Amino acid sequence: MKYKIAVIAGDGIGPEIVEEAIKILDVVASHTGCELEYTHVLMGGRALDETGVPLPDETVEICKASDAVLLGAVGGPKWDNLPGHLRPEAGLLGIRSALGLYANLRPATLMPALADACPLKPSVACDGIDMLIVRELTGGIYFGKRGRSVGEDGEEAFDTERYTAKEIERIARVAFKAAQRRRKKVTSVDKANVLESSRLWREVVHRVAKDFPDVELEDMLVDNAAMQIVRAPGRFDVMVTSNMFGDILSDEASMITGSIGMLPSASLGDGSRGLYEPIHGSAPDIAGQGIANPLATILSAAMLLRYSLGLEREADAVERAVAKTLDDGLRTPDIAGSSQNVKVVSTAEMGDAVAKSLKTALTAREG
Ligand code: IPM
Ligand code: MG
Questions:
Q1: Looking at CB atoms within 10 Å, which of 39, 107, 173, 220 has the fewest?
Q2: Are both 100 and 125 inside the same structural domain?
Q3: Do residue 230 and residue 191 come from a single domain?
């Protein structure tokens, strides 16, 4: 089998972490005999510097013609003062939308080896943390009408949260289907006590729930959800929510799993093509120092194998190789904690260690 993978290394630490994920994909390719053809394309800050726009048409075309897109991160202070439509982030929102990737899966799990890095008291995190945030990705306030004007009181600005029943229904289905393969519980997060868009959200989610009688549904207001994530994270299985709430709550959920440097994501649409990226940003403050944590990107590559290439067993093997590397005590600085029993390693050393462990596992399987 031959697969086309578009690679957007991006800005800041993007190129460093993507390089490690490609190392891992190459190990999988050499052991499964599938051929991975990478095409590097521009998006974000580098695209702005080289082409004048954050998302060149060529990038969209190549991504559309690929089986999957692997992305590092985009953005940085250099481009912060550009108008909204020219910011690197506009490229990210643009590619998600152009590829129809409305469902963003963000699994937050606390790996046993990282229990020390979890900022919650052991008594709070004792039930473990294993939740999947299903974030709506191509609608809501990030895509709604916005603008500025000058009114009676001077300058004004507005953004609009708008959802159609169709958009809510399709993301709800993704969440219920995911819950069927997990612990069969969906928490739908909204702000239905204030927002009309949330009231529609709640109605539609309840309608969809009727098609999934084996899954338990609860509603939760977003402010309460923010609290419950740090009060009793073990209670969550699948959480489904809007674009903005999902953006905010997934950063919170990532922190309780040890570090934002650990959380992968898959953005999917109706077909098998997906975009895979860590949930963290481009971290310009540590770029080029070789200290960034590549694990969120490596785990995103595992999701790529699972959802876009159908290589489920290999995806499992990558996840186990990451767990094994952490069990062996290797840590990048962000997850080092205060324990004496860990070895702090660089971005590349971490990638090499995961690749080595993966090779051993895949070789054992062949033998
Ligand atoms: C994320 C990021 C992006 C988002 C930004 C960079 C536009 O925060 O993937 O969570 O808000 O979706
Ligand atoms: Mg975010």
A1: 39
A2: no
A3: yes
216 lines ligand 1 (CB under 6 A): no
> For 4-24, what is each residue's pLDDT tens digit?
999 999 999 999 999 999 999
Ranges in the chain, pLDDT < 50: none
pLDDT of residue 126: 67
Phi, psi of 264 (to 5 degrees): -90, 170
**pTM (predicted TM-score):** 0.96
H/E element holding 186? strand 185-190
Closest atom of ligand 1 to 92 CA is 7
Is 275 touching ligand 1 by the criterion CB < 6 Å?
no
Residue whose Cα lies nearest atom 10 of ligand 1: it is 247
Element (H, E) at 299: helix 295-307
Give the total number of structural domains in the chain.
2
Question: 240 lies in a domain?
Answer: yes
Which amino acid, one-letter code, is at 154? G
Could you tell me the two tokens for 141? 């306030």
| Ion ligand 2 residues within 5 Å by Cβ | 247
Of 256, 276, 292, at which residue does a domain stop? 256
89 lines ligand 1 (CB under 6 A): yes
Phi, psi at 328, each rounded to 5°: -75, -5
Could you tell me if 151 and 205 lie in one domain?
yes
Give pLDDT, residue 358. Answer: 98
> Which atom, in ligand 1's list, is nearest to the CA of 142?
11
**Are 123 and 241 members of one domain?**
yes
Q: Identify whether 244 is part of a domain.
A: yes
How many angstroms separate the CA atoms of 105 and 209, rounded?
Answer: 19
Domain region containing 173: 119-256
Catalytically active residues, by annotation: 142, 191, 223, 247, 251
Pocket test residue of 11, 92, 142 for ligand 1, highest count of atoms within 8 A of CB: 92
Confidence at residue 231, expressed as pLDDT on a 0 to 100 scale: 95
